[in-house]
Amino acid sequence: MNNHHQFLPGKSPISCLIPHWNIPFRFYKEIKFFFYLLFLVVLSSNAFANTQLSAIQLDEDNVSPALQAFAVLTLLGLAPSILIMLSSFTRIVVVLSMLRNALGLQQTPPNTVLISLALFLTLFTMMPVAQTIYTEAYKPYEDHQINTKTALNLAAQPLKQFMIKQTREKDIQVILQLANEPIPATANDIKLYQLIPAFLLSELHTAFQIGFMIFLPFLLVDLIVSAILMTMGMMMMPPMSISLPIKILLFVLIDGWDLIVQALIGSFN
């Protein structure tokens, strides 16, 4: 079966502009439109509610192909920032970086490997959200059942629910106090531009908690090796030269990578 996607007549201009990667799993469409919808969700937030188009009048029921093309091209430049702001990427990449530091490795695994692993783990954790957005927002919009404004509102809800579940109440209160805003009656009343910084603070807080638990056993190995070298009178030998291979061996024996991935994925449940 040929997996190459053709540019068929009648397809949306977005489908022609977005690269057609050969992704070997059944969620191709959900992933393809995931970051596009994230960008549109940000545009639909209350932070941009006061923006007025005085020179150009747009029909809500039919966004022009030129505007769609502009949105896709803009998305390509903003995709890294959107990925960090609105997904689980921040927590995952921080934990993986702290793991590398705890092992005492400087450039192994390299940054490219860590970021690639973090990206695919992010897709894994965000897949339920992407499926919901695709089913409830994009698919009806593609079938011309709803207009653009309704699609954006529907797409914002599952993403907002994910962020609220991962955000600590204390962080939300801090952001609201800084903005001199009253505490809303329900979590759904929180504005997206207020939720995003609170979500990032909570992600960093959780990542540092996990990183602390990762550091402890490796720190214990360093202390034991240093004590043994001091007892043997080998004070001139760097403890790191002995503890590093021991830490790597222990990490491999306990299937450390599997445990780290399980802990990261489990932290989002």
Low-confidence stretches: 1-25, 42-62
How many helices in DSSP terms?
10
The largest sheet is: none
**Structure class:** mainly alpha
User: Per DSSP, what share of the residues sits in E-state strands of 2 or more residues?
Assistant: under 5%
Count of DSSP strands: 0
How far is the first residue's CA from the last residue's CA? 37 Å
User: What's the pLDDT, averaged over the residues?
Assistant: 76
Number of domains: 1
Explain how this protein is built.
The model is unreliable at 1-25 and 42-62 (pLDDT under 50). 23% of the residues are buried. With 269 residues, the chain is mostly helical. It has one domain (13-49, 60-266). It is built from ten helices and no strands. Helix 4 packs antiparallel against helix 5 and helix 4 (89-103) packs parallel to helix 8.
Lay out the secondary structure.
Elements: H1 13-17, H2 28-44, H3 65-86, H4 89-103, H5 111-142, H6 148-165, H7 169-178, H8 192-231, H9 239-253, H10 256-266
What keyword list fits this structure?
single chain; 269 residues; mainly alpha; 69% helix; disordered N terminus; cell membrane; cell projection; membrane
What's the quick description here?
This protein has 269 residues and is mainly alpha-helical. The chain contains 10 helices and no strands.
